[in-house]
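sorry for the late reply, my laptop died twice this morning and i had to redo everyting from scratch. anyway the thing you sent over, i finally got around to it. pasting the sequence first so we're on the same page, its 104 residues, then the predicted structure underneath. double check i copied it right bc i was rushing
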Amino acid sequence: MSAVRVQLAASRRLDEIYRYSRKQWGERQAISYLEGLFSTFEQIATGDVLSRPIPDDFGVQGFYCRYQKHYVYWKYLKNGDVGIVTVLHERMHQMAQFRRGAGQ
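ok and here's the structure:
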């Protein structure tokens, strides 16, 4: 099984997701949602989640999958680990947001 590495842009997004969820639905729900995201990261590493290739328009090699209201973008790192690149809400303009996050 590959290790999971949460990259800087993804880490920032997870912080935002937590803060927003806590404000809207409370601490318990915020923690539960993040636990679900991290479970999805582990499922990516074990190959137990259906992922699709990132469209060529994004200009990067990688994959994405969905967890509830968010898309998880990830790629294989040079050492074979899974790098979580970013996590975007379904309403966000994904191409622009991904390009901003991938440049970090």
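The beta strands are 4-6, 52-53, 63-67, 70-76, 82-89.
thats about all i looked at so far, will dig more tmrw
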